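Run log, item B.
One chain of 127 residues. Sequence copied directly from the ordering sheet:
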Amino acid sequence: MNLNHLDLQVSNVPEVAAFFERHFDFQIQSNRTSAAIVILSDRAGFTLVLQRLKDASQGYPNGFHIGFLVEDVALLHEKRARLLESGIEAGQIIENNRGVMFYFTSPGSFLIEVGCRAPRRVASLRE
C-alpha cells in the first residue's frame, strides 16, 4: 500500500501553494488561482492537496509537522540559507542520532522539518 496524498487545511491556499512551488519544487496540477483548493505534486509521484481552512479556530495539534529529506548535509545547509534569504525564519541546525535537521514554520502556520538522515553504521565482521 502506498500513501496517496496529504491534505493540509490552510488559511491562504494560493500563498502556501506558491511557497511549495518555490521552495520544494512542487508543481501545481490544478487551478493555481483557486482560493479554495490547489493540488500539487512532486517529481516522485506524491500529491499534496491544499484546502482553505473553514474554521480558523482549529489549528494543527502541537508537534504536527511534515518532513522533507535531502540527500546530504550540504544540501540541507543550502536549503536553510535560501529560506533565510527569502525572509523565512528557519531554526538552528540540529544534529542527533537520527541525522541533521532544522525546523521552521511555513506560511499556513504548520511546522516543516528539513532533514538528512545519519549514515547507517555498518557492523564490522569478525573473523
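Observations after the first pass:
- The radius of gyration is 17 Å.
- DSSP finds two helices and eight strands in the chain.
Flagged for discussion on Thursday.
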